[in-house]
Input
Amino acid sequence: MLERDETATTSGRVTIRTVAAHAGVSVAAVSKVLRNAYGVSEALRGKVEAAIEALGYRPSRAARGLRGRTFTIGLLLVDIRNPFLPEIIDGVNGILAPSHYRAMIGVSEARIQLETSLIESMIDYKMDGLILIAPRLPSEIIARFAAQIPIVAIGYHDPDAKNFDTVNCNDQRGAAVAVEAFIERGYRKIGMLTLGSREGHRVSVVRQREIGYSEAMQMAGLGEAIDIHSIPVASPVREESLKAFLLRPDRPEAVFCWSDLDAITLLNMAAEMGIRVPEDLAVIGYDNSPTAALSLVNLASIDQSGHALGVLATETLLSRIEGRETHLAHSTAPSLITRRSLGRIAGLETGSRTTQNSSSQ
Amino acid sequence: MLERDETATTSGRVTIRTVAAHAGVSVAAVSKVLRNAYGVSEALRGKVEAAIEALGYRPSRAARGLRGRTFTIGLLLVDIRNPFLPEIIDGVNGILAPSHYRAMIGVSEARIQLETSLIESMIDYKMDGLILIAPRLPSEIIARFAAQIPIVAIGYHDPDAKNFDTVNCNDQRGAAVAVEAFIERGYRKIGMLTLGSREGHRVSVVRQREIGYSEAMQMAGLGEAIDIHSIPVASPVREESLKAFLLRPDRPEAVFCWSDLDAITLLNMAAEMGIRVPEDLAVIGYDNSPTAALSLVNLASIDQSGHALGVLATETLLSRIEGRETHLAHSTAPSLITRRSLGRIAGLETGSRTTQNSSSQ
DNA sequence: CAAAAAATGTAGAACGTTATACATAGAACG
DNA sequence: CGTTCTATGTATAACGTTCTACATTTTTTG
Output
């Protein structure tokens, strides 16, 4: 192993100048090799690669950001507690691992100003593209940013998106799967718990799940029994609203809940109040979170395969970065994981999966 | 609002040159204002700040990385599923929100090569400092990186650390708190579940909790009853080992588990096998994860306040970045959240907290 | 073989900011 | 008032890489 070259900086970092001197070629030649640019002989490539190896050279991502690519994908989260995040991130990292790309995650809150500020920061870092996970931004804001940087949104249903891509589980279908499962087991009074009016727009997964619930009920001739109970976002009125639902004299016999987070809280309260699940109230959640699978919890849930969403979003973003300009909207299929909370059929101690077909636009 | 200035780049981005032209001053003057450097009059500051506001200028973090600071804190995670992560991140973001700093999170795996590669990437981004959360690296590797970039480690007990800082919950004390709680309730056959030999070094939180368990048992005159059951890291032998523990004819009457993750799995299995908790087996976990608090789960747990750890680590790192060179090792106090799994005293349906003092070196 | 075309490697500027040297203006002092 | 000291703002190079123009070498063609 050679000593560090004297063309290293005063801080001791090996730079492209160091490599060029070591290989006896120009700086631009080293850059061409790094970029895999046209006009590099095999002999030159060999010399440069040997020098890079010998010196342990790593390009500065910051410097690259001034002219070329940083090989960075930004992931933007508005809720670090979203239960399907680990799977998405596993999916993303699985695709990026063999490449030069690296994912960097920024955590914001569900407020337009904070989400916007985080996206701006990611642009200032010269990231090559962004994956927004369940963003709460209006479509026009996302479109404005997409004019500056490639963007893919997960968990965001915008049928009019032109300059950014979307990757979603088919949330209407997910809700319909839940309703159908209840009906198949003989339930007719089927309600839905949804999240409050802060999430009012059609792009939101919550709204899509409501639409799916309502349409499935109507298809089944149960339009008169549609019963959507809206819970507020903020604690403690959120928990109070769940309790109020449980205390209703006209409580339905089965309920589809927009997310496992609130479904699990509901199960907890039911247990504390002596309401038997599924005998007094059958429950299906959404997300198939790890907690839902605990046999102490045993919540039936719609699974949307975060891993597949992460994989698909990353592949879609990389193709955007490579120059594709036509819009893509991917839709994956939800599946029902049946567990005890669904009830009405014996032998439901272990989860089992009912699958739908997937589709892309 | 003025039109975008003609000195903007061809990509349309507002740069420091644009601001300088708009304010009628030099580029270096604008830089001095941005850096809050000495030698700026109030009049100049006013002109520059007005131009920045009018043009919506944001410095390029990539360009800043070439000479100054990017105002970026890197958070490195080896396990995105670690239940106390959301609280740590809330703590970090709470401190950074009013500043120019931004946290960027990188997710790795618990393998030396991958963790090392992620740290190198963060250095290549010219991040200003790093917080390593429960790193699995040997001390010498961390120290080598700390010679290049300010580092604070959370959940890493290295009494010999010289050039990086540590912020930990007092894990020995946490284990002792659990043992003492069992003893106070009359349990004498008290075991411990720990994580396998891959985590063999003293810096590891697992090893610290073992030490705390063993010493507390000896202090209580129960040295002969020390019983540490080691479970392997990898599934499915991990779950098999937990089941083997439950099936032991000489199973202890109470068990302290190194982490909520495995404690919850244990509770699940116990429920499936008809082992009553706490009547047949009392359990205390570690981390006070949200799942532990569900009344369907109701696991007593040692709380280490991820939020406080995040706050403390961030403050410590910022002072490192500002130039402090003396080593700091912060230790916060664990507290016991009592719940039903602990047993032996009536009226334990709601969690309550037993607190210890905190200390810093 | 000569001319044309293609491949190769280099020189130099660009990217957007920071840091430093220093010219100059303004303030303080005798 | 002249000299010295301090504060201010500018000019310029540095930071580490990418990109492009183009000189030169090599290959292909007639």
Remarks:
- Residues 65 and 126 of chain B are 5 Å apart (CA to CA).
- Confidence is low (pLDDT under 50) at residues 1-6 of chain B.
- The two ends of chain B are 54 Å apart (CA to CA).
